[in-house]
Amino acid sequence: MKYILSFLFIFFSFLINAQDSLKSAPKTYKIGIQHTPPFVTQNPDGTYDGLSIKSWNLVNESLDYNFKYQEYKTLKALLNAVESGEVDFSINPITVTDSRMERLDFSQPYFISHTGIAKRKESQVINILKNLWSWEFISAILALLGVIFIFGFLVWLFERKKNAEEFGGSKGKGLMEGFWWSAVTMTTVGYGDKSPRTTGGRIIGLIWMFMAIIIISSLTASIASSLTVKSISGEIKGITDLSRFKVATVNSSSAAELLDQYGIDSEKLVTEEEGIALLNNKEIDVLVYDEPILRYEIDKLNLGNSIEVLEKTLKKDYYSYSFPKNSDLVDQIDPALVRMLKRMEWENLIKEYK
Question: Which PANTHER family does this chain map to (predicted)?
């Protein structure tokens, strides 16, 4: 009996010590991430870097959490992992949207960005040559020729008999002479080889001289407008204008939500790198995604000479850490995150990555 009691005492002491040891061991938090340059990148040695990683390092200086990163290949997989509690939270640059707030909780925003539009750079010469064959240019030229012909015809009516040496001859020749005089008068070249001599002809000429100043100005503006390089950037003044182009974006992104909200058909891609490749190969017209990520990827791939991000943006984005719904970690991390945003180190990091 004595030995049994001793064994039970040792066994229960072991259990108690084991429980105390488990209680004292700090929890290791799983942080979900996805490769999203320049916010989340990976070094050759396998360690992670980027603006979001550095933001978390600054935040964790006061929290002192044990943690490990768990990487996901797509944004959709990452969001699902956060929502299901597969990871404790994510520090990826997740844009806060109404639909996401129904699925997740978010921290104080740590970065303000915009939804941008990337497109191929267009050749000015090629666009001008293409516009020479546009209906706008052709219609402006035809209108100009029509007005010149009308006044040439009116002068010919008055001059064809009394000024036959200049406007006479066959009907076709006379009309051509009238057309020539009208064109020379309108352009103020003034060769002096032809001039109306009849009273009616001179009245028409006087009217045409004054009208030509107004008409040539408006028609010149019309022709110049039709020749102006029409680029995608000039045609996009709002999100609804995207319906005229072949658009792509990243699946499950806030940009995809925005396009769907406005009924803009778009090709949903796995990554922004895929979209940039399609854009460079002229398989799509525009790529809509987070502006800083687009600019970083284009610069990294040395495609700045062929692809540009428009100054025009579609909306403002707020990047935050994301958590499973009703997570207690939000109240723990938020104060540390707010303190981090006030630090000079964070300001310097922002400048470095812009």
Answer: IONOTROPIC GLUTAMATE RECEPTOR
CATH (one of 3.40.190.10, 3.30.70.580, 2.40.340.10, 3.40.1440.60) for 22-113+318-353: 3.40.190.10
- CATH number of the domain at 120-126+236-315, out of 3.30.565.10, 3.40.190.10, 3.40.50.1110, 1.10.287.70? 3.40.190.10
Q: What is the CATH number of domain 134-227?
A: 1.10.287.70
Q: What are phi and psi of 193, to 5 degrees?
A: -75, -20
Report strand pairing: 66-72 vs 247-250. Answer: unpaired
SS3 helix, strand, coil % of the chain, rounded to 5? 55, 20, 25
Q: Which residue positions in the chain have pLDDT lower than 70?
A: 1-25, 123-134, 169, 190-192, 219, 222-234, 354
Q: What confidence tens digit (pLDDT) does each residue in 144-177 have?
A: 888 888 888 888 888 887 887 777 767 778 788 8
Cα 326 to Cα 11, 187, 200, 255, 265, distances in angstroms: 39, 77, 91, 26, 34
**Helices of type H across 168-265:** 171-186, 199-227, 232-235, 254-261
Handedness of CA 83, 85, 86, 89 (dihedral sign): positive
Per the prediction, the chain carries an average pLDDT of 85
The predicted pLDDT at position 299 comes to 92
Alpha-carbon radius of gyration of the chain:
36
Residue 146, classified by CB atoms within 10 Å of its CB into exposed (0-12), middle (13-18) or buried (19+), is exposed
